[in-house]
Amino acid sequence: MTLCRRGTAWFTPRVTLDSTLPDSATLVRTLIAAQFPHWADLPVEAVDASGTANAVYRLGDDKAVRLPRTEGSAADVATEHLWLPRLAAQLPVPVPVPLAQGAPTEGFPWAWSVCTWLEGTNPLPGDGTWAPELFAADLAEFVLALRRIDPVDGPPAYRGEPLASRDAETRKVIAGLDGVLDAGAATAAWDKALAAPAFTGAPVWVHGDLQPGNVLVADGRLTGVIDFACMGLADPAVDLIAAWYLLPAGAREAFRTAVGADDASWERGRGWALSIAVMELAAYRESNPAMARNAWWVIGELLAG
Fold it and tell me: How many whole angstroms separate alpha carbon 39 and alpha carbon 43?
């Protein structure tokens, strides 16, 4: 997962895991043994991932344990346990289905999850070595299926605000990156996105964070979508970020046609991708090479035209 908006800020510091806690795999075994003893004999293996919200561990062959890295991420656990089972049956590819919700303990201060394990690997951003048109079709099918789900009682997405509400923060971040990227070109692209007509329709279900760390592929096809912490109801243009985060230039038009994005939606999608990418680059340039690499790719593609 990447930076998600809560309240009015994108960079509000949140409590992080106490460095004095035991080794993570040991901690997971301890939590499982205490709260779900019927799984205590299953092996635990840390998963090497670039996500910033949760540490993930494989539990046996078919389960995953997700330990929130921050207090804010822990707040997502209850939402995922409520909504993911309802969404899963209506989506064309597997998503993690919650199996058990762990309670805070003296050794770990927040709620945590056990969910189904999904096979697959994270794609490289814009990988065109396979048949990207097929991947584009898979992504479009997922996005459209999510949009069709009944929105009644759905929560607002973390990226459910109007694009224009990100204006001041996005300009501030771009200015701070002057000399690292072409701030003039980035500002011009942002101005163009803001000039697009605002979304005035009824909000729909969105994943909110369709980028390499949150999708799974095998043989160039979409096999699963993970990390729904940003999910909820929003402008459907939010999920168009997949065009720049996941697809090479030659496959974007096929994706756009399949999802039926008009000019205004497409431009807002470009704006969302740019705003998210520059914020990720600013936040992770020195600390998370995989996230920074994704952000660089997206910014380069957006500024290339």
Answer: 9
Q: Are 122 and 113 in contact (CB under 8 A)?
A: no
* Spatial distance between the Cα atoms of 228 and 15, rounded to a whole number of angstroms: 21
- What's the CA gap between 188 and 99, in Å, rounded? 46
Confidence of residue 21 (pLDDT cuts 50, 70, 90): very low
Structure tokens at 286: 């020195």
How far apart are alpha carbons 55 and 212 in whole angstroms? 17
Q: Give the DSSP H/E element, type plus range, for residue 46.
A: strand 44-46
Radius of gyration of the chain (CA): 19
Q: What is the pLDDT of residue 1?
A: 38
Using alpha carbons, select from 87, 78, 67, 58 the residue that is nearest to residue 17. 67
H or E element, residue 218: strand 215-218
In this prediction, residue 48 carries a pLDDT of 78
Task: Judge whether 302 and 274 are in contact, CB under 8 Å.
Answer: yes
Residues, the chain: 305
- Backbone conformation region of residue 232, classed left if phi is above 0, alpha if psi is from -120 to 50, else beta: left
User: From start to end of the chain, where are the E strands?
Assistant: 44-46, 54-59, 63-68, 98-102, 112-116, 204-206, 215-218, 221-225, 232-234
Coil, helix or strand for 225? strand
Helix (H), strand (E), coil (C) string for 61-125: CCEEEEEECEHHHHCHHHHHHHHHHHHHCCCCCCCCCEEEEECCCCCCCCCEEEEECCCCECCCC
- The 10 Å Cβ neighbour count of residue 136 is 26
Mean pLDDT over the full length of the chain: 90
Mean pLDDT of 209-221: 93
Which pLDDT score is estimated for 179?
A: 93
Q: What is the pLDDT of residues 49-91, one digit of tens each?
A: 656 788 999 999 999 999 998 888 898 899 999 999 999 999 9
Q: Which two tokens stand for residue 249?
A: 């230039």
Say which amino acid occupies 28. Answer: V
**What is the Cα 169 distance to its own chain's centre?**
20
